């Protein structure tokens, strides 16, 4: 949750300032866009055709919820960087042994 200066709550910092995307307000103890809240909270990446086939799913948790709700891919940079990291890891391990 992200809370703005007026107490409006958002599920993503990208939504701040757009009151239509507020899921509630802590000052007035009210709910806002409940449908959006449920979309953020109830997404199941294992039911997504692309995500369910991805070997990174357990780590990425389905990627960025905000991007998914915008109809975008939603994947994190993990897919692009993990191979580079794995290739670099032996070098780092060797340096630490010295």
Description:
The chain has 98 residues and is an alpha+beta fold. It folds into two domains: 1-42, no CATH class; 45-98, no CATH class. Helix content is 43%, strand content 9%. The chain has five helices and four strands. The protein has helices at 34-42, 49-52, 57-60, 65-69, 78-97; strands at 2-3, 8-10, 24-25, 30-31. Strands 1-2-3-4 form a four-stranded antiparallel β-sheet, with no helix packed on it. β3 and β4 form a beta hairpin. The protein is elongated. It starts with a strand and ends with a helix. The mean pLDDT is 87.
- Taken together, the total number of domains comes to 2
- The proportion of residues in beta strands is 5-15%
The total strand number stands at: 4
Which structural class best describes the helix and strand composition? Answer: alpha+beta
Uncertain stretches of 5 or more adjacent residues: none
Put simply, the count of helices is: 5
* Oligomeric category: single chain
How far apart, in Å, are the first and last alpha carbons? Answer: 44 Å
The overall pLDDT average reads 87
Give the strand order of the largest sheet, numbering strands 1, 2, ... along the chain: 1-2-3-4
Calculate Rg over CA atoms.
19 Å
Shape call: elongated
Instruction: Report the biggest beta sheet as strand number plus sense, adding barrel if it closes.
Output: 4 strands, antiparallel
Instruction: Name the helicity range.
Output: 40-55%
- List the secondary-structure elements in sequence, H or E: EEEEHHHHH
